[in-house]
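Justification of resources, computational component.

The compute hours requested in this renewal are based largely on the per-chain cost of generating structure records like the one below. Each record pairs the submitted sequence with a full structure-token output. That output is archived, and it is also reused by downstream analysis tasks.
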Amino acid sequence: MNMKSDYIKVFGGNVTQSDCVEQLLKENDISPIVKSESESARLAGFGTPLPHISEIFVHKDEEAQALTIISQLNWDE
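The structure output for this chain reads:
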């Protein structure tokens, strides 16, 4: 799997928001990949300057659908 060419970042935010986006994408038959810098750093024994930030990637074929779903979220509610 070549993340650089086959997968596209569609979201970046705190862990709570990322968990919500991940679940919503899965409910719409999209298979997201979640990358957590803080978790990767913790597992490697390092700290991170931006704790609790996650990025979500989807296959490029699912990008448009994922962005449409994410754009409908209202974080103020």
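Strands lie at 7-14, 33-36, 53-59. The two ends are 37 Å apart (CA to CA).
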